[in-house]
Amino acid sequence: MTAYVALGSNLKDRAAYLLEGLSRLSRLPKTRLLRLSSLYETEPLGPPQPHYLNLVAELETALPPRGLLEAMLAIERALGRERKERYGPRTLDLDLLLYGDLVLEEEGLTLPHPRLHERAFVLVPLCDLIPEGRHPLLGRTFAELLAGLDPSGVRPYVV
């Protein structure tokens, strides 16, 4: 199954956390990293905090959605993620955006990601990979969804 995972970091060496997160995702059983979006620097949601680095990874996986999510949460924990506040700073944030066209709502797991269509910092990198892909519930392309948002807080990151 093709899955899309958003990665973000805004603490310490942001790029190093993203690279380590990608490395660990690529080593998950029955999973391989296919493509990456460009890297973006984005303004944070919530309280004042450092800007994020964000990207989206395309994976091919035979892990079930819950298994992939649990592995992602374990990666976050291993890299020092603390879940103290909803929009607080983080070493690494991994969000399962899409798992094929699966629509799922269960405790702790909603697919597609419930706020995917509201977030330019997710849609901009997702559109690097699948601009003509369609949101499984809304039926609109990701490019169409992005056109309805203000992407000014999402800037290409140049090293």
From TrEMBL:
- So which domain of life are we looking at? Bacteria
Please give the pathway this protein is involved in: Cofactor biosynthesis; tetrahydrofolate biosynthesis; 2-amino-4-hydroxy-6-hydroxymethyl-7,8-dihydropteridine diphosphate from 7,8-dihydroneopterin triphosphate: step 4/4
Q: Which Pfam families match?
A: HPPK
Return the broad EC class. Answer: transferase
SUPFAM superfamilies tied to this protein: 6-hydroxymethyl-7,8-dihydropterin pyrophosphokinase, HPPK (SSF55083)
Q: Molecular function (GO) terms listed?
A: 2-amino-4-hydroxy-6-hydroxymethyldihydropteridine diphosphokinase activity
Alphabetized Gene3D superfamilies for the sequence: 7,8-Dihydro-6-hydroxymethylpterin-pyrophosphokinase HPPK (3.30.70.560)
Q: Where is the 7,8-dihydro-6-hydroxymethylpterin-pyrophosphokinase domain?
A: 86-97
* Protein keywords: ATP-binding, Folate biosynthesis, Kinase, Nucleotide-binding, Transferase
InterPro entries, A to Z: Hppk (IPR000550), Hppk_sf (IPR035907)
Name the Enzyme Commission number(s) assigned to this protein. 2.7.6.3
Q: Which PANTHER family match?
A: 2-AMINO-4-HYDROXY-6-HYDROXYMETHYLDIHYDROPTERIDINE PYROPHOSPHOKINASE
Q: What is this protein called?
A: 2-amino-4-hydroxy-6-hydroxymethyldihydropteridine diphosphokinase
| Gene behind this protein | folK
